[in-house]
């Protein structure tokens, strides 16, 4: 085998390794996204039931369902405001660290996964 064929084979192997790494990272991103999406979906469903229950309970305590709706809605607006103000710290920085770890973490090809 001459040097030209060796270089060609080496570049082909490097190209395949790059593609495999890309597929692995892409599948990790999709997996993380779907897992997060499912957790958010379950959380939102739970919040709807909790808000409905709290609204009905507060309406019976106050004997005014309209006031209970305003109080429950105000609570969620306040929660939204807090999450909005902390969005960078809670979400952006977390996802940046996650993606940086996934894409730039050195992987030992000889290491076994237990």
Radius of gyration: 25 Å
Q: What about the largest sheet?
A: none
Order of helices and strands: HHH
Distance between the termini: 39 Å
Strand content: under 5%
When the domains are counted, the total is 1
Structural class: mainly alpha
Q: Shape, please?
A: rod-shaped
Overall pLDDT, averaged? 85
Q: Unreliable segments (pLDDT under 50, ≥5 consecutive)? A: none
Number of helical elements: 3
Helix content: over 70%
The number of E-state strands comes to 0
Structure in words:
By secondary structure, the protein is an all-alpha fold. It has one domain. 87% of the residues lie in helices and 0% in strands. The relative contact order is 0.06.
Give me the secondary-structure topology:
Layout: H1 3-62, H2 65-85, H3 87-104
Helix pairs in contact: 1-2
């Amino acid at each position: 085998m001459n040097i030209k064929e060796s270089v060609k084979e080496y570049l082909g192997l490097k190209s395949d390794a790059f593609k495999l790494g890309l597929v692995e990272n892409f599948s990790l991103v999709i997996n993380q996204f779907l897992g997060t999406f499912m957790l958010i979906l379950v959380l939102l469903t739970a919040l709807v039931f909790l808000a409905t229950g709290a609204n009905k309970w507060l309406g019976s305590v106050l004997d005014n369902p309209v006031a209970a709706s305003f109080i429950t809605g105000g609570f969620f607006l306040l929660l939204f405001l807090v999450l909005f103000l902390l969005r960078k710290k809670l979400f952006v920085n977390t996802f940046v660290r996650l993606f940086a770890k996934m894409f730039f973490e050195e992987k030992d090809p000889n290491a076994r996964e237990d």
